[in-house]
Every structure is written in structure tokens, then in C-alpha cells.
Amino acid sequence: MNAQNLLLILASIVGTSFAQLKAHGNRLGLQIGAASNGWGDGAQFAIPAYAYRLNTEYNVQVAENECKMTNIRPNQATYDFSDCDRAYNLSRNAGADFRFHAAIWYNDLPTWFTALNAANQRSAIISHITTVMNYYKGKIDVYDIVNEALADAWDSNGGVMWRQEPLYQNNPDFVELSLRTARAVNPSARLFYNDYSNHFSYWGQSRNQLNLIDYLQSRDVPLDGVGFQCHVDVAQPITKQTVIDAFAPYVARGLEVQITELDVACPATCNLNRQAEVYLAFLQACVETPRCTSFVMWGVTDAITWLPTLQPNIFSGTIVNGNYTEKPAYTAMLNYLAGLQSIPARQYNTHAPGAVTNTATSTTSGTVTNSATSTTTATVTNSATGTRKKVQKRSVRKG
Ligand code: G3I
User: Fold this and answer.
1) Atom of ligand 1 nearest to the CA of 196
2) What's the pLDDT tens digit per position in 249-268?
3) Where are the alpha helices (DSSP H) in 219-327?
4) Ligand 1 centre and the CA of 65: distance in Å?
5) Axis-axis angle for helices 174-185, 118-135 (nearest 10)
6) Burial category of 110 from C-beta neighbours within 10 Å (exposed 0-12, middle 13-18, buried 19 and up)
7) Parallel/antiparallel/unpaired status of strands 292-297 and 225-228
8) Ligand 1 site: residues with CB under 6 angstroms?
9) How far is Cα 174 from Cα 125, in angstroms, rounded to an integer?
10) Cβ contacts of residue 111 below 8 Å, gap of 6+?
11) pTM of the predicted model, to two decimals?
12) Which residue's CA is the nearest one to ligand 1's atom 1?
């Protein structure tokens, strides 16, 4: 009996739905996904219920940890993509896309890197991004090139409040350097800056991120989108509109927005209906924002979650219980997607090979045709700059 049949039987036994979020995502042209956790040499992937949820429910996956520098580059001279490849291959074998997380992050720098002087850290940033982007060229479209470079603060005069970590102090232009290096290696890739606390437009951290975007765009630094981590909790006053409002200033700057790490922390006496409302708010906001090109949750099940490291008594944050049964949040999202006949086509910052796209005043020459997906060219007007932008709209890979 093959794994697929086993999964089907398992699904019937535990009375769960089967391949429904994914099926609706593919039908609607919406990426809906989750982070996979390959800790312990991928032991989780061998758990039938885990594999079932991960591989049959989502059309995009991201590795929670396996593609970070500490995993990929155990020492300066060695690149070991085996863990990241395992996560990548798992997603592709499941017919899912895969987003890369994360090339440069102050909180995941190996000790060999932090021991280097500034000049050698600069070289290591360039070599790491160059090697990663070459290795996954033609395999992965979307990359979190830099994660969490900013302080939890805001300068109302428009300055950028940088996270005061050695990564920045040694090379204050490391974000620009990383993005330019990535674009030069793979002009077709879609490059993202990923951060948290940007899901409320009026929060200082979101305004600080917009100041960063303005700074980067003023220097024609290539950037295609911003990742909204969305590590939230049930107490936050989140609605569909607050999320749409949070997306708006980034969209106005010609960027894609992606929900990249959504989890909704809920205390032991969890109000599961409120948790479902919050998940639904993010999904509806993404669906109603054509520039929202991916909706990814940070984990498959409450059985494997980082949340207790953040708040010791918090275990509930995903849409599936620790015993792999579905939570109200799962049902709410499934019913919502099932009720949609169609959604506005997603609008990507897709680049013709060799073209450099300035997202603020993007003019993209040529068309990238991906045999696995149909590609159409459309134009949308960047309301911030009034420029007309060519963007490619792709249907989500079927499968
Ligand atoms: O693999 C080792 C294992 O060999 C060892 O026995 C074990 C105990 O020390 O640690 C294991 O590595 C842990 C890894 O997760 C795998 O589980 C690391 O110590 C631990 O620090 C790491 O935590 C991850 C954290 O990023 C730091 O990389 C979390 O799982 C992951 O959920 C979290 O994800 C981040 C995003 O990348 C960026 N946005 C915030 C988000 C939450 O912090």
C-alpha cells in the first residue's frame, strides 16, 4: 500500500477533510501554505498524519528552519543544502510551490560568521546569497532575502530605525547589498523583505518598514515584495479591514505583499471561535488584495509549534490540533474558500530574465513564460507614482 492510499484511509478514519484547502487554492489561483518542520533529520515528515496535513492541504510550503544560514552553511567553506533540499523536494513532490526563508537574518547567524570582521562579513553575505541563489535558480521563485533588519521603533521624520545588531553595525548597507546581490545572480527571482508587526498600518514598526521601503526605492534597490509574518494572538483587534489597510501602503509602493508566518496564539482556555475569526480576517484580506500573492501559516499542527518559546503556556496557534483534527479556524477558512467562485487574479512582480524592475516605477520588459503555469501580461497603475506597471499574472501551479 502506497503512502497516498494510507493517507486516504487515515483521513477517512480521523474524519478529516482531504486536500480541500489546497484544492480550493489551486482552483482560485491562490497560494495557501504552511511551514514544514524538518527538525531531527525530517522525523516529522515520516508521521503519516503530519505528512497528510502538509502535503495534501497546501500548494506552497516553506521550511521553518532548514534553509537558514546556520543550517545551510555550517562553516564558511561548506554549503550543505541537504536539509533545505529535503523540505524543497517534499513540497515539489506534493505539487506545491516553495518559498525560501531566509538568506540573511541577524538571529540566525552561525558563530563562524559573527566571528568575522566587517569586511569579511560583507564578503560572506555576498558569497552566501550568490551561492544560494545560483543553487536554487530555476527551482524557487520567491526568497526572503533579509529578515527583521529593523528596530521596533519609528522615526516620524522618515528616517530608518535599524536594528542595532552587529550585522547592521558592521555593514550598515547590508539590506541593499543583499538585495542587489540577489537580483544580480537571479534577475527572475522575486525578492522579499520579511518582518513582523506590520499587520497594523498604524503601528510604528510598520511605519518604520515603510520608511525602509522608501529609502530602498529612492536608491533603486531591487525589491519585489514585503512579507507580513503575522505572529499574532486572539486579543489583537484584527479584522479583514485592518489587514487590508496594512497592505495598502506597500501595494501603493508597487510591492507584492505576502502573509508569510501566520499563527494566532491562543491561551489554554482558547476562544477557538475568535482564533477562527482572526485567521479568516487574514485570508479574506489576502483574497481581496490582488497584490497579496501568498498566504502561509507558521506550522502544520499545534503538535509542533515554536510558540511556547515565545510564551511558555501558549501551544495553540495553528489551525490543526495536536492530534491532527481540524480546529474551527480550519473549517472557517475552508467554508470561505469553498464559497468563492473566483477571486481577483494575483498580480506578481515577475521579471524577464536580465530585466531589472524598479518596483516603484516598474517597467518590465519581456514576458516570462513558465510551462507549468499560464502567464498573462497585464498592467496595473501604481497609484503612488502614477506609473503603469507591467506585471505578470500566473495561475498557481496545478498539482
Ligand atoms: O536542530 C536543533 C536540534 O539539533 C537541537 O537538539 C535543538 C535543541 O537545542 O535545537 C534544534 O534547533 C532549533 C530549531 O528551531 C529547530 O527546532 C533551534 O535551537 C531553535 O532556535 C530554532 O528556533 C526557530 C527560530 O525561528 C530560530 O531559528 C523556530 O523553530 C522557528 O519557528 C523560528 O521562526 C522564526 C522565523 O524564522 C522568522 N520569524 C520569526 C519566527 C519565530 O521566531
Assistant:
1) 39
2) 999 999 999 999 999 999 98
3) 240-252, 272-287, 307-310
4) 6
5) 30
6) middle
7) unpaired
8) 39, 64-65, 68, 108, 147, 229, 261, 306
9) 8
10) none
11) 0.86
12) 39
